[in-house]
Every structure is written in structure tokens, then in C-alpha cells.
Specification:
about 400 residues, alpha+beta, 13 helices, five-stranded antiparallel beta sheet, nine-stranded antiparallel beta sheet
């Protein structure tokens, strides 16, 4: 892939994604697959007058080794310097860039019960630091290829060709192949905002989903909780940023206690770098009461048992079936991309910043209003070409939101 495209992509992530401010610190979290691209990101941050840029590396083979040989006690021991670093992040509020490149099958064979137990033990230790920064900083998630990921997406191509093809697909779906990616994203944000504003004007109280897979599902929505799309604004600032590159969704957080019916997945779910395939969930009074999957059913059951909120929804998101990502015909095996090809739901924590005047409430008060709270947030795809979504308004009027998989307005 041409370096000019990669550098423009890095510029898009830094300037449109996190919209870095002069003198701000930046933390980049990435795998060891793309050191050259990460160097472009770091350089772009400094060109935008970042004060400091820290890179935190992950590597799947090392993760598997740690979980094979270390005890749960050792894995959950949090050194003092780690807590001091988290305190430093609370004080300095760095912008965060998360670069995804992991092999979807990269953790195959890992003891996922051990992984879940470690996460459950670490969560209450790290949660106070995360809560202290909630909604207050810019962040952006974007993808770059790895050879393992590329071969998963394009199994019939050579290693090199698959890698180049995945780069092209990522750049195209991220609008980074445009002559002016920044301008393309400004226009895209405006288009998403128009749909978001219309949804907010309807004052919907519920959505009813149906399709030929068997989905027949109703979800209640919360009064005073808005729809969001595209760009966001960090709390206490005027800094506008794009947390997801790419993004095609309009989303909201539903009433955690009002979900009933059955929902079928339309694409595989990558969870803990393992694939859960051909599954469906049955909800009653907001909670998953039954799950079935042809592949990795036990992992799915474990996921919804992580805590009380893991079996409830934190997000409903609307994405047209004719979105650019779906039109590509590519199954990315990566939630960031596949969720933007399809309407989706998310199990786990909801978005507190969608509550009107959320800055005037404590986090627990926002959860008490009906926003779900959990240690997980896992998106799974439900959109199909025949998906119908009918919304009901406060006055009982029914309005078709989606017809044949696409916007009905």
C-alpha cells in the first residue's frame, strides 16, 4: 500500500478521530503487527503539537503464554506503578487511540474460563479510574491489517495479496481513499446527524424488529435519552471527535428492563479473539433467558454471565443494509467493521452521555434511570436485507423506521 495513503489515514485518525489539541498527551494501544503505521500515527500526533505520545503494545502469542503458565493470582496482581499510571491518566486526561489488527482466531485454544475470571477480578480494581474519566476524553478506534487477520478475511488469496486487499478494504470503508478524507468525513457526519435529528424528533418509546431469520423482538426506549451518530463532544470541552473510524450507525441506549422476544445473529461475533457463530438470544423483561449457538455456545453463555448487566442490552444501533461496508461484500470478522455493515445490538454497559444533562448526575444515578451497567460491551449483528423495524411514539403512533433492511425515510 502506498505510504501516502497510510499517512493520510494516520492524519485522519489523529485530526478527525481524536481531534488532538495542542499540548495534549496521547496514548496509543496497538498490536505488534504495524510498527511502521504506528510510527506514522506518533509523528502525526507530534505534528499536531502533542505534548507526549505513549504506545502500549499487545501481542497475542504472549497473551496465550501468560494464560498458560501464570496463576490467576499472578494474572490479577496489579502493581503499584500501574495504579499510579491510571491516576496520572485521570489527572492528565490523555486522548486514546486504539488500533485493531488482531487475528480473529489468534487466541484459539486459550482457557477462556480463566480469562473470564481474570477479567472479573481486575474489573473492580480498574473501574474507579475509568469512571473518573468517563465521557471526559477523546478516543478513536480504527483498524490496520495483520497477516493473520487478512488470511481470515481472504482465505483464497496469497498471504501478500490478502494483506494488500485488507488494507484497501479498510481504507475504502474508512473514506481514507478519498482525495480529501477530512472533507468526506465532515459530509458524512452531516448526513448521519440529519438521521439522528429525525429519530430524536419522533420521541420513540419502543422498536419492534422482525426478519426471516426468526427475529421477533421488541425493545423499550428511555424518555430523555437521545440518539447519537458520528461525531461526539468530550464533556466540559468544545472538542468534537469521531470515536469510530469507520462509522455508519445511529444508536441509543435502551431501557435495560424492557426487552422481549428472540433475536438471531446475522454475522459471526468475534469475542476474546474467538468466533461465536449462528446464534440467537431469547429475552424476557430485559434479560437473556436462553442462548443457542452452533459454534462456541459455552463462550456465549460465559459472556452473558460476566456480571448482572452482561445479559442485558446497553445499545441498539441502526445501520442500513446498503451501507458501504456491507456493499463491499466482505465479512471482516471484526466488530468495528461488521457492526457498521448491519443493524446491531450490544450486550453490556450503555452510554450514560446520551441522557439529557448527564453532566449533572452521578454515574449511579444515570444507571438508576435505566441505562445498563456492566463490565462488558459486546456488539452483535442482526441486520438483514428483509429487516423491518417499526417504532412506536409517545402518543401510540407506529412509524416504519426500517423497511427491507434500509431506512424507510
Amino acid at each position: 500500500m502506498k505510504k501516502s495513503y497510510l499517512k493520510n489515514y494516520a492524519k485522519l485518525i489523529v485530526r478527525q478521530g481524536i481531534n488532538i489539541q495542542k499540548g495534549q498527551n496521547v496514548v496509543i494501544v496497538a498490536d505488534l503487527d504495524q510498527p511502521e503505521f504506528i510510527s506514522y500515527l506518533v509523528e502525526e500526533c507530534y505534528k499536531c503539537h502533542a505534548r507526549s505520545v505513549e504506545v502500549k503494545w499487545n501481542y497475542q502469542p504472549l497473551t496465550k503464554l501468560h494464560y498458560r503458565y501464570k496463576s490467576i493470582e499472578a494474572l490479577t496482581e496489579v502493581p503499584k506503578y500501574v495504579l499510579e499510571r491510571e491516576e496520572y491518566y485521570v489527572k492528565t486526561n490523555p486522548a486514546m487511540i486504539y488500533i485493531l489488527s488482531a487475528d480473529p482466531d489468534g487466541l484459539q485454544g486459550i482457557n477462556h474460563k480463566k480469562l473470564a475470571e481474570v477479567n472479573q477480578k481486575l474489573y473492580p480494581i480498574m473501574k474507579p479510574y475509568r469512571d473518573a474519566r468517563e465521557n471526559k476524553y477523546q478516543w478513536c478506534i480504527a483498524g490496520v491489517p495483520s497477516y493473520g487477520w487478512a488470511k481470515k478475511v481472504f482465505p483464497h488469496l496469497t498471504k501478500k495479496k490478502a494483506y494488500e486487499s485488507l488494507w484497501e478494504a479498510i481504507l475504502k470503508t474508512s473514506r481514507a481513499l478519498n482525495d480529501n478524507p477530512m472533507k468526506a468525513w465532515e459530509e458524512h457526519n452531516r448526513n448521519l446527524k440529519q438521521k439522528m435529528d429525525y429519530l430524536n424528533s419522533l420521541q420513540l418509546v419502543s422498536l419492534h424488529y422482525q426478519n426471516s431469520l426468526g427475529t421477533d423482538f421488541t425493545v423499550g426506549l428511555l424518555d430523555g435519552v437521545k440518539w447519537e451518530a458520528g461525531s461526539e463532544i468530550a464533556l466540559g470541552t468544545n472538542i468534537v471527535y469521531n470515536p469510530n473510524i469507520p462509522s455508519e450507525e445511529c444508536f441509543t441506549s435502551p431501557n435495560k428492563n424492557e426487552m422481549n422476544g428472540v433475536v438471531y445473529s446475522s454475522k459471526p461475533l468475534s469475542y476474546q479473539n474467538q468466533l461465536i457463530e449462528d446464534f440467537y438470544l431469547v429475552f424476557k423483561d430485559g434479560k437473556v433467558v436462553e442462548v443457542h449457538a452452533k459454534k462456541n455456545e459455552e463462550l456465549l453463555k460465559q459472556m452473558i454471565s460476566m456480571d448482572e448487566g452482561a445479559s442485558r442490552l446497553g445499545e441498539v444501533a441502526l445501520v442500513p443494509f446498503d451501507s458501504p461496508i456491507n456493499q463491499s461484500g466482505i465479512l471482516f470478522y471484526n466488530t468495528l467493521y461488521d457492526e457498521n455493515a448491519s443493524c446491531h445490538l450490544a450486550l453490556g454497559v450503555g452510554f450514560t452521555n446520551l441522557v439529557d444533562n448527564y453532566e449533572n448526575y452521578k454515574l449511579e444515578e444515570l444507571y438508576d434511570k435505566g441505562i445498563n451497567n456492566s463490565m462488558i460491551h459486546v456488539d452483535f449483528m442482526i441486520g438483514t436485507k428483509d429487516l423491518s423495524i417499526v417504532g412506536k411514539t409517545k402518543n401510540g403512533k407506529e412509524i416504519t423506521i426500517f423497511k427491507d433492511g434500509n431506512w424507510a425515510f
